[in-house]
Protein backbone atom coordinates (compact mmCIF):
# COMPACT_ATOMS: atom_id res chain seq x y z
CA UNK A 1 0.00 0.00 0.00
CA UNK A 2 1.58 3.27 -1.08
CA UNK A 3 1.74 6.12 1.39
CA UNK A 4 -1.20 8.42 0.64
CA UNK A 5 -2.55 11.29 2.68
CA UNK A 6 -5.68 10.19 4.50
CA UNK A 7 -7.58 12.74 6.54
CA UNK A 8 -7.51 12.17 10.28
CA UNK A 9 -10.83 11.20 11.82
CA UNK A 10 -12.10 10.77 15.36
CA UNK A 11 -11.62 7.43 17.08
CA UNK A 12 -15.40 6.93 17.14
CA UNK A 13 -15.49 7.24 13.37
CA UNK A 14 -12.51 4.91 12.97
CA UNK A 15 -14.43 2.22 14.84
CA UNK A 16 -16.98 2.08 12.04
CA UNK A 17 -14.39 1.56 9.27
CA UNK A 18 -13.53 -1.77 7.68
CA UNK A 19 -10.13 -3.29 8.41
CA UNK A 20 -8.80 -2.37 5.00
CA UNK A 21 -9.86 1.25 5.43
CA UNK A 22 -8.19 1.33 8.82
CA UNK A 23 -4.96 0.19 7.22
CA UNK A 24 -5.07 3.23 4.96
CA UNK A 25 -5.15 5.38 8.09
CA UNK A 26 -2.31 3.34 9.63
CA UNK A 27 -0.16 4.04 6.58
CA UNK A 28 -1.13 7.69 6.95
CA UNK A 29 0.32 7.71 10.45
CA UNK A 30 -2.73 7.17 12.66
CA UNK A 31 -1.73 4.80 15.46
CA UNK A 32 -5.29 4.79 16.81
CA UNK A 33 -6.42 2.99 13.65
CA UNK A 34 -3.98 0.17 14.32
CA UNK A 35 -5.04 -0.04 17.96
CA UNK A 36 -8.56 -0.78 16.73
CA UNK A 37 -7.24 -3.54 14.46
CA UNK A 38 -5.44 -5.09 17.43
CA UNK A 39 -8.63 -4.97 19.50
CA UNK A 40 -10.59 -6.65 16.71
CA UNK A 41 -8.18 -9.47 15.95
CA UNK A 42 -5.96 -10.17 18.97
CA UNK A 43 -8.20 -12.66 20.78
CA UNK A 44 -8.93 -14.82 17.73
CA UNK A 45 -5.34 -14.69 16.53
CA UNK A 46 -4.10 -15.74 19.96
CA UNK A 47 -6.60 -18.63 19.99
CA UNK A 48 -5.38 -19.77 16.57
CA UNK A 49 -1.75 -19.64 17.67
CA UNK A 50 -2.49 -21.49 20.90
CA UNK A 51 -3.90 -24.38 18.90
CA UNK A 52 -0.74 -24.53 16.81
CA UNK A 53 1.89 -23.88 19.48
CA UNK A 54 0.10 -25.35 22.54
CA UNK A 55 1.97 -22.96 24.83
CA UNK A 56 0.42 -19.72 26.14
CA UNK A 57 3.74 -17.88 26.39
CA UNK A 58 4.74 -18.80 22.83
CA UNK A 59 1.28 -17.92 21.55
CA UNK A 60 1.38 -14.54 23.25
CA UNK A 61 4.89 -13.84 21.94
CA UNK A 62 3.94 -14.68 18.36
CA UNK A 63 0.69 -12.71 18.62
CA UNK A 64 2.62 -9.62 19.69
CA UNK A 65 5.31 -10.14 17.05
CA UNK A 66 2.73 -10.59 14.30
CA UNK A 67 1.08 -7.27 15.16
CA UNK A 68 4.44 -5.52 15.43
CA UNK A 69 5.44 -6.75 11.99
CA UNK A 70 2.07 -5.80 10.55
CA UNK A 71 2.50 -2.28 11.91
CA UNK A 72 6.12 -1.87 10.86
CA UNK A 73 5.43 -3.20 7.37
CA UNK A 74 2.03 -1.56 6.92
CA UNK A 75 3.09 0.01 3.64
CA UNK A 76 3.58 -3.47 2.16
CA UNK A 77 -0.08 -4.33 2.70
CA UNK A 78 -2.13 -4.53 -0.48
CA UNK A 79 -5.87 -4.14 -0.01
CA UNK A 80 -6.61 -6.64 -2.76
CA UNK A 81 -6.52 -9.11 0.17
CA UNK A 82 -8.36 -8.91 3.48
CA UNK A 83 -6.32 -7.55 6.35
CA UNK A 84 -7.03 -10.70 8.37
CA UNK A 85 -5.59 -12.87 5.59
CA UNK A 86 -2.40 -10.79 5.56
CA UNK A 87 -2.14 -10.83 9.37
CA UNK A 88 -2.59 -14.60 9.60
CA UNK A 89 -0.01 -15.09 6.85
CA UNK A 90 2.51 -13.20 8.98
CA UNK A 91 1.57 -15.17 12.10
CA UNK A 92 1.66 -18.55 10.34
CA UNK A 93 5.13 -17.87 8.98
CA UNK A 94 6.29 -16.90 12.47
CA UNK A 95 4.92 -20.18 13.83
CA UNK A 96 6.73 -22.19 11.17
CA UNK A 97 9.99 -20.42 11.96
CA UNK A 98 9.56 -21.08 15.67
CA UNK A 99 8.80 -24.76 15.11
CA UNK A 100 11.88 -25.15 12.90
CA UNK A 101 14.00 -23.71 15.70
CA UNK A 102 12.42 -26.07 18.23
CA UNK A 103 13.06 -29.05 15.97
CA UNK A 104 16.75 -28.16 15.87
CA UNK A 105 16.94 -28.75 19.64
CA UNK A 106 17.66 -32.44 20.42
CA UNK A 107 15.04 -34.35 22.33
CA UNK A 108 12.32 -31.76 21.87
CA UNK A 109 9.44 -32.72 24.13
CA UNK A 110 5.87 -32.01 23.08
CA UNK A 111 3.61 -32.40 26.09
CA UNK A 112 0.58 -32.85 23.88
CA UNK A 113 2.01 -35.51 21.60
CA UNK A 114 4.82 -37.18 23.57
CA UNK A 115 8.42 -37.14 22.43
CA UNK A 116 8.78 -36.21 18.78
CA UNK A 117 8.70 -33.33 16.34
CA UNK A 118 5.64 -31.06 16.46
CA UNK A 119 4.90 -31.46 12.74
CA UNK A 120 5.14 -35.24 12.70
CA UNK A 121 2.39 -37.07 10.83
CA UNK A 122 2.43 -39.75 13.51
CA UNK A 123 -0.03 -39.35 16.34
CA UNK A 124 0.68 -40.59 19.84
CA UNK A 125 -2.32 -41.25 22.04
CA UNK A 126 -3.20 -39.12 25.04
CA UNK A 127 -4.77 -40.72 28.10
CA UNK A 128 -8.13 -39.04 28.44
CA UNK A 129 -10.19 -39.58 31.60
CA UNK A 130 -12.38 -42.66 31.75
CA UNK A 131 -16.12 -42.35 32.20
CA UNK A 132 -15.67 -43.26 35.88
CA UNK A 133 -13.36 -40.27 36.35
CA UNK A 134 -15.99 -37.79 35.20
CA UNK A 135 -18.92 -36.55 37.29
CA UNK A 136 -22.14 -38.47 36.62
CA UNK A 137 -23.91 -35.58 34.97
CA UNK A 138 -24.40 -33.95 31.60
CA UNK A 139 -21.16 -32.58 30.23
CA UNK A 140 -21.11 -28.82 30.55
CA UNK A 141 -20.32 -26.66 27.55
CA UNK A 142 -17.01 -25.51 29.00
CA UNK A 143 -15.90 -29.09 29.57
CA UNK A 144 -16.86 -30.07 26.05
CA UNK A 145 -14.84 -27.14 24.73
CA UNK A 146 -11.82 -28.43 26.64
CA UNK A 147 -12.20 -31.89 25.10
CA UNK A 148 -12.63 -30.40 21.63
CA UNK A 149 -9.50 -28.30 22.16
CA UNK A 150 -7.56 -31.40 23.18
CA UNK A 151 -8.91 -33.20 20.14
CA UNK A 152 -7.70 -30.43 17.85
CA UNK A 153 -4.26 -30.58 19.46
CA UNK A 154 -4.04 -34.26 18.56
CA UNK A 155 -4.53 -33.60 14.85
CA UNK A 156 -1.11 -33.90 13.15
CA UNK A 157 0.36 -30.41 12.71
CA UNK A 158 0.59 -31.01 8.95
CA UNK A 159 -3.21 -30.92 8.81
CA UNK A 160 -4.04 -28.96 11.97
CA UNK A 161 -2.97 -25.60 10.54
CA UNK A 162 -5.44 -25.65 7.63
CA UNK A 163 -8.12 -27.36 9.73
CA UNK A 164 -8.05 -24.62 12.39
CA UNK A 165 -8.03 -21.83 9.80
CA UNK A 166 -11.14 -23.32 8.21
CA UNK A 167 -13.17 -24.81 11.06
CA UNK A 168 -12.25 -22.43 13.89
CA UNK A 169 -11.40 -19.15 12.14
CA UNK A 170 -13.73 -19.71 9.17
CA UNK A 171 -11.40 -18.55 6.42
CA UNK A 172 -12.32 -19.52 2.88
CA UNK A 173 -10.25 -22.11 1.03
CA UNK A 174 -8.80 -19.36 -1.13
CA UNK A 175 -7.81 -17.29 1.91
CA UNK A 176 -6.21 -20.32 3.55
CA UNK A 177 -4.20 -20.93 0.38
CA UNK A 178 -2.98 -17.33 0.55
CA UNK A 179 -2.14 -17.59 4.26
CA UNK A 180 -0.28 -20.89 4.04
CA UNK A 181 1.22 -20.54 0.56
CA UNK A 182 -0.24 -23.91 -0.40
CA UNK A 183 -2.04 -24.80 -3.60
CA UNK A 184 -5.83 -24.79 -3.36
CA UNK A 185 -6.03 -28.56 -3.95
CA UNK A 186 -3.53 -29.17 -1.15
CA UNK A 187 -5.53 -26.94 1.18
CA UNK A 188 -8.71 -28.92 0.49
CA UNK A 189 -6.88 -32.20 0.98
CA UNK A 190 -5.32 -31.16 4.30
CA UNK A 191 -8.62 -29.85 5.64
CA UNK A 192 -10.34 -33.12 4.75
CA UNK A 193 -7.55 -35.13 6.34
CA UNK A 194 -7.76 -32.94 9.42
CA UNK A 195 -11.52 -33.50 9.61
CA UNK A 196 -11.04 -37.25 9.34
CA UNK A 197 -8.44 -37.25 12.11
CA UNK A 198 -10.66 -35.06 14.29
CA UNK A 199 -13.65 -37.33 13.73
CA UNK A 200 -11.61 -40.40 14.65
CA UNK A 201 -10.27 -38.69 17.76
CA UNK A 202 -13.55 -37.26 19.05
CA UNK A 203 -15.96 -40.13 18.37
CA UNK A 204 -14.67 -42.43 21.15
CA UNK A 205 -14.17 -39.47 23.49
CA UNK A 206 -17.74 -38.27 23.10
CA UNK A 207 -19.06 -41.84 23.42
CA UNK A 208 -17.09 -42.18 26.65
CA UNK A 209 -18.73 -39.11 28.17
CA UNK A 210 -22.14 -39.97 26.79
CA UNK A 211 -22.52 -37.15 24.28
CA UNK A 212 -23.26 -39.52 21.38
CA UNK A 213 -24.84 -43.00 21.50
CA UNK A 214 -22.84 -46.11 20.74
CA UNK A 215 -23.57 -47.62 17.33
CA UNK A 216 -24.13 -51.28 16.71
CA UNK A 217 -22.61 -51.34 13.25
CA UNK A 218 -20.29 -49.51 10.92
CA UNK A 219 -21.80 -46.42 9.37
CA UNK A 220 -21.17 -45.06 5.93
CA UNK A 221 -19.29 -41.81 5.49
CA UNK A 222 -20.21 -39.27 2.85
H/E element order: HHHHHEEHHHH
CATH fold-level assignment of the largest domain? Rna Polymerase Sigma Factor, Chain: A
Shape: elongated
**Largest sheet features:** 2 strands, antiparallel
Strand content: under 5%
Please identify, by name, the CATH architecture of the largest domain: Orthogonal Bundle
Radius of gyration: 20 Å
Give the % helix: 55-70%
- CATH H-level superfamily title of the largest domain: RNA polymerase sigma factor, region 2, helix turn helix motif
How far is the N terminus from the C terminus?
44 Å
- Count of the separate structural domains: 2
CATH class of the largest domain: Mainly Alpha
Q: Strands of the largest sheet, in order across it?
A: 1-2
Multimeric organization? single chain
Helical segment tally?
9
Low-confidence region ranges: 106-139, 215-222
Whole-number average pLDDT? 79
What is the number of strand segments? 2
Structural class: mainly alpha
Structural commentary:
Strand 1 (109-110) and strand 2 (114-115) form a beta hairpin. With 222 residues, the protein is mostly helical. Strands 1-2 form a two-stranded antiparallel sheet. Helix 6 crosses helix 9, helix 7 (157-167) packs across helix 9 (184-208) and helix 8 crosses helix 9. It folds into two domains: 1-105, RNA polymerase sigma factor, region 2, helix turn helix motif (Rna Polymerase Sigma Factor, Chain: A, Orthogonal Bundle), CATH 1.10.1740.10; 120-222, Arc Repressor Mutant, subunit A (Orthogonal Bundle), CATH 1.10.10. It is 59% helix and 2% strand.
Amino acid sequence: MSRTQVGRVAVGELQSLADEQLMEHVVGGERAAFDILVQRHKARLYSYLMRLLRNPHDAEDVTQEAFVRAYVHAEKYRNIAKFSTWLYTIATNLVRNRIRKQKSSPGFLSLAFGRGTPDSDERETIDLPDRADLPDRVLEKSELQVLVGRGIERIPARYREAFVLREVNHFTYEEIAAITGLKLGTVRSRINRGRNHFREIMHPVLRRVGEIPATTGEGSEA
